[in-house]
Write a structure and sequence with these properties.
Elements (H helix, E strand, L loop, with lengths): L2 H7 L1 H13 L2 H6 L3 H4 L2 H29 L4 H7 L2 H22 L8 H10 L1 H18 L3 H7 L1 H8 L1 H16 L5 H22 L11
Helix pairs in contact: 1-6, 5-6, 5-7, 5-12, 5-13, 7-9, 8-9, 9-12, 10-11
Length: about 220
């Protein structure tokens, strides 16, 4: 096993990797004093948290195709040990993104919340984001071993395929929120699509017939 694979197996290392992106806004806002971030700090944090949530969801969805394509890779095996942690982290960042959105729209005052939610229903890109967040909440709650036993393996697996629906909704949410189809969204989602296509090819490709037994 390589040193990198051993490092990836460490839960402490993975926790650090997952937490650091959440702390990143402190650098341009308080240390570097970046004018573009300081122009609208809450909006900067809002976009950053949404981007991290999107990136983590796509990352965890790559684990399955990578395991099919490279089943003996120590790095891929190490990554798959943290599937639940990375998936739940995607939900946590998405929830923080939504909370920041509420604050940005004036949700600190409860009287404003009905109006904010009416706006969500009127704007398709916000509605898709809210639906994706609801799916991620459902997947996070049912990620526990007790939920797997309660649902049964087949139903649990079918339920967690909703993660792909959430990914598609988030791709639209990210693209529509910027009013154009940004290259950033393509860079995030195209590798996942390619890996899934390769997984389908490997799973369903014709296999050579077994050699006839010698008399």
């Amino acid at each position: 096993m390589t040193a990198f694979a051993r490092l990836l197996r460490s839960k402490t290392f993975v926790w650090i990797v997952l937490i650091l992106p959440g702390l990143w806004p402190a650098w341009p806002l308080f240390v570097r004093q970046d004018s573009s971030a300081l122009a609208d700090p809450l909006k900067f944090i809002l976009h950053h948290l949404g981007f991290v949530a999107c990136l983590l969801l796509v990352t965890v969805l790559t684990f399955s195709p990578l395991r099919v394509l490279f089943p003996r890779s120590p790095v891929v095996q190490a990554l798959n040990r943290h599937r639940r942690l990375v998936g739940v982290s995607a939900f946590v960042y998405a929830a923080l993104h939504f909370t920041t959105h509420l604050l940005y729209e004036g949700g600190a005052h409860p009287a404003n919340l009905p109006g904010i939610f009416r706006n969500v229903l009127d704007k398709p890109f916000q509605l898709t984001g809210l639906i994706a967040l609801t799916i991620l909440l459902l997947l996070a709650v049912t990620s526990l071993h007790a939920a797997v036993r309660w649902l049964g393996g087949r139903r649990w697996k079918n339920l967690h395929r909703l993660a792909y629906v959430a990914a598609a909704l988030i791709a639209y949410h990210q693209a529509a929120a910027r009013k154009i189809f940004p290259v950033q969204v393509l860079w995030i989602f195209i590798p996942l699509v390619v890996l899934e296509l390769l997984r389908l090819w490997k799973t369903h490709r014709p296999r050579p017939a077994p050699a006839a037994a010698r008399p």
